[in-house]
Design brief:
Length: 214
Amino acid sequence: MAKNYYDITLALAGICQSAHLVQQLAHQGQCPPDALKITLNSLLDLNPSSTLAVYGDYEAHLQFGLETLIAVLKSNSRQGLGTELTRYTLSMMVLERKLNASKTALNELSSRIARLDRQLAHYGLESDTLLSAMASIYVDVISPLGPRIQVTGSPAVLQNAQVQSKVRASLLAGIRAAVLWQQVGGSRLQLMFSRNRLVNEAKAILALLNGTPT
């Protein structure tokens, strides 16, 4: 059966978007607000009608992730920020596999995310209350699955409680994207043998967004 590289690329861009948000938050304490909002919101729809529906049915919501995907797959660097992005991306994929193997963790995750929806009736998506709730889900459900993701950045920035919550919430959303990636046919083998295909698909989506011919 032929792979749907459009959906695979979108879901992979979702993982990469989370990785880049984590990196920017850890180093600078801030990140593109629109990309963060879309990424956090992706946690709430566990039964989407399509891959794109997870990200508001609009490819532009994943522009930050698509650009990151291209950078990660084209990078030959074994050090620096490119290596960090690759490490975060692969680490989220590993944790998704561990999550998928634990029925208890999956049930707990669904239950906790359902509660987020109820809290949204009273608090904003990016309120300290919701961010803290998302971060707690990551700490309670995902972290025990191991291996833990070592986030590197500015020690002073990483001591900030709100930054910590945003980082953990972004990692949780990245694992949600990795679940989606597996569901639509994504695999680690593609990262080795189909890099050009994935890069070209991401470039084609970006070209349509920018109104330029591919």
